[in-house]
Design goal:
Elements (H helix, E strand, L loop, with lengths): L8 H10 L16 E4 L5 E5 L1 H10 L3 E6 L6 E5 L1 H17 L4 E6 L5 H16 L3 E7 L8 H14 L4 E3 L4 E3 L2 E8 L21 H8 L1
Parallel strand pairs: 1-4, 5-6
Antiparallel strand pairs: 1-2, 3-4, 6-9, 7-9, 8-9
């Protein structure tokens, strides 16, 4: 009896999937009958077959990349594909490193005006750099009897910083603390009011908070 080999369609299917190429189509993989072509200098070269467009690209030692596949006809650009991928990788890296940090300033209900304005200048600088800001007002002992004064101090800080950031929510009482978080306004709207760009960026009060908790 002859040995029957099992159907290997599943293996071929897996092989097909592993060979699939994701991302924008380029060069010979562009299958549209006609494409709109943009030259390496950014100028429109007109509508032509992918074969004609690729011939133009090859003459300059460049590639043909499909940049808008859903257009009618699809749009392709003549470019240096290696350089294009390098620039895209740089953009992705830059986007990942632009992380937003949470800075903090700490207030007291009976804070002196000079100390209050120092905290405001620091907060303004944090928001100017694009950081989020947490304002925490701590109350001790009998200060809890004057929560209204604490809320007044926090709301005054929000008012002083309204040109640089906006509260994500209303200030809230959490235990012995009143806290609120601010997000910076768009970069093109940030203008320093209490400090200068050349001023040194201070440390935030998170270290002070840790010491007090200890």
């Amino acid at each position: 009896m002859a040995n029957l080999k099992p159907f290997n369609g599943g293996d071929n299917s897996r092989q097909f999937k592993s060979n699939r190429s994701f991302g924008p189509r380029r060069n010979e993989r562009i299958r549209a009958p006609k494409v709109r072509v943009i030259g390496a200098d950014g100028k429109q070269l007109g509508i032509m077959s992918p074969y004609e467009a690729l011939s133009i690209a090859r003459k300059s030692g460049l590639d043909l990349l499909e940049v808008s596949p859903n257009s009618e006809p699809p749009v392709c650009r003549i470019l240096d594909y290696g350089k294009y991928m390098y620039e895209e990788a740089k953009k992705q890296k830059s986007h990942k490193t632009a992380t937003v940090k949470l800075k903090e300033i700490m207030l007291r209900p009976a804070i002196e005006i000079n100390d209050f304005m120092t905290k405001i200048r620091n907060a303004e600088k944090f928001l100017f750099q694009g950081n989020k800001l947490k304002i925490t007002l701590r109350m001790r002992g009998r200060e809890m009897e004057y929560k209204d004064k604490g809320f007044e101090t926090v709301n005054r800080a929000l008012e002083e910083l309204s040109h640089m950031g906006h509260a994500d929510s209303e200030p809230k009482l959490m235990g012995r603390n009143i806290a609120v978080t601010l997000s910076p306004v768009p970069k093109n709207l940030r203008k320093l009011k209490f400090s200068r760009e050349s001023d040194e960026v201070p440390e935030d009060d998170s270290a002070q908070k840790s010491e007090e908790e200890d």
